[in-house]
Design goal:
Layout lengths: L3 E2 L5 E2 L8 H6 L6 H4 L4 E5 L2 E4 L4 E4 L2 H4 L8 H11 L13 H15 L7 E3 L5 H16 L4 E4 L8 H5 L4 H5 L8 E4 L13 H8 L10 E4 L2 E2 L5 E2 L2 H13 L3 E5 L23 E4 L12 E4 L19 H14 L4 H24 L2 E6 L2 E6 L4 H11 L2 E2 L1 E3 L5 E4 L7 H17 L2
Parallel strand pairs: 5-17, 7-8, 7-9, 9-12, 12-13
Antiparallel strand pairs: 1-2, 3-4, 4-5, 6-14, 10-11, 13-14, 15-16, 16-19, 18-19
Length: about 425
């Protein structure tokens, strides 16, 4: 190929196909992860990603939680390859297909019925924010009320409705318009135990003179993945569920990141023993990283008129196929969940050891959604950069990016987990 000069003065040609120049030249400045990891990833398997130049990284990022079963799990990849090889339906809107039927049967058999859940399944679109938007809309439609309560440091998505119940100021500013019909309450332990966290909500809901209207719903994450790995206690979640029930306010659990096994049970709220009215699922639901989301809602809340909420890509059959394969491969019994719980305990032990050695760092999270919160607000970013230099992919979270966040695949081996912890310990020491 003969090299040519582009209008911006960049030389394009043979070298351009193996560089990052085209990303810099054409991709929007909104890109973020590639700024922390300025390499070109080419191959991936299990808990590892490999770049074009052959450098391998241990991936404790897992596609922001979209790859709970690791990269290219063979059982899931084989199911997709077999499906596509038969000229089967890929795009189907909300029409009936065998792939959709198989998914619904597997979800019913392996997840819903064993937990006594009669929830209907809505396919709102391919992403987590699609699920949240549909949850907010149906809660308002079913109750006739407009406001929704969310919590400090919550993150629920990037579309306007989801942003209205998100706490992060940078992301809210990206809306470019005022965000309406939401109010924020303190998350578990936000007030450091000085005042019961739910006391304010109970007081204003009970007081007709408070000026606070009874909301349609409360939306909550049991572990705030983007908000700093704040993990709500089971007793706090039970108190919240009881409060909502007493005042006939719907309870929405956003399980987009913490669900699909990340905390050691399929749903993150199972440990608390609560029964949400509406549940949002996405990210790892497809199993292989394909875009897929569902909204689970109690049958009496399913008050939609046909077509009242729709979307072009709510019937993506390849995702149905890999999701079904994931449910049958990992959730046919409790064996996989028990392994995840064991790995979660091992991760916590390792992180607490690193935090104690470092000083000024505390464990946060639950299961395999965990990390270290640093008192020095600038240190987590430096630790993440040092980890990348040593071959480990981790990100940061929290309002000041003060938390190093680890999300290894749920299929991680003990050897991989220990290796990742060792690399993290080296990165922490290097930034002391």
């Amino acid at each position: 190929m003969t090299a040519t000069t582009t209008p911006t003065g960049t030389t394009a040609g043979t070298t351009d196909s193996t560089s990052t120049a085209v990303f810099e030249r054409r991709e929007s400045d909104v890109r973020s992860y590639c700024r922390s990891w300025p390499v070109v990833f080419e191959r991936a398997l299990g808990a590892e990603q490999t770049t074009e130049d052959g450098t391998t990284y241990l991936d404790f990022f897992s596609g922001a939680g979209a790859l709970n079963y690791g990269h290219n799990h063979p059982a899931l990849k084989r199911a997709l390859q077999d499906y596509l090889a038969q000229d089967t339906v890929v795009h189907a809107m909300d029409m009936f297909t065998p792939a959709k039927r198989d998914f619904l049967l597997a979800l019913e058999e392996l997840v819903l019925r064993p937990r006594g859940m009669g929830h209907k399944v809505q396919f709102p679109g391919p992403t987590g924010t699609n699920s949240v938007e549909s949850a907010l809309k149906v809660a308002r439609k079913a109750t006739g009320r407009t406001d929704v309560v969310s919590f400090t440091n919550a993150f629920h998505g990037m579309t306007l409705g989801s942003l209205a119940v998100t706490g992060n100021s940078l992301k809210r500013e990206g809306a470019g318009t005022p965000l309406y019909h939401s109010m924020t309450a303190p998350y578990d332990d936000y007030l450091d135990g000085r005042t019961p966290d739910l006391h304010w909500l109970e007081r204003v809901w009970a007081d007709s003179g408070s000026g606070v209207a009874l909301p349609a719903a409360v939306i909550v994450e049991t572990v705030q993945g983007e908000g700093g790995l704040n993990a709500a206690r089971a007793e706090w979640l039970r108190a919240l569920a009881d409060l909502c029930r007493r005042f006939e306010v719907l309870l929405i659990v956003d399980d987009v990141q913490a669900g699909c096994g990340r905390t050691g049970t399929f749903f993150s709220f199972e440990e608390a023993g609560i029964d949400p009215d509406i549940i949002c699922l996405s990210k790892s639901l497809s199993g292989l990283g394909l875009p897929f989301a569902v909204t689970l809602l109690r049958p009496e809340l399913d008050q939609w008129e046909p077509g009242e909420h729709n979307g072009t890509f709510r019937g993506f059959n390849p995702a149905f196929v890999t999701a079904t394969a994931a449910l049958r491969e990992f959730w046919s019994d409790d064996t996989f969940a028990e392994t995840v719980r064991q790995r979660g305990a091992r991760l916590r032990e390792g992180l607490e050891r690193i935090g104690a050695e470092a000083g000024g760092a505390a464990y946060r999270g639950r299961g395999l959604l965990a990390g270290l919160a640093f008192e020095d607000l600038s240190r987590a970013e430096r630790v993440a950069a040092a980890a990348f230099d040593r071959g480990l992919l981790v990100e940061t979270s929290g309002p000041d990016s003060e938390v190093v966040k680890l999300m290894p695949p749920l299929t991680v081996t003990e050897e991989e987990l220990d290796r990742g912890l060792q690399l993290l310990a080296e990165a922490v020491r290097a930034t002391a």
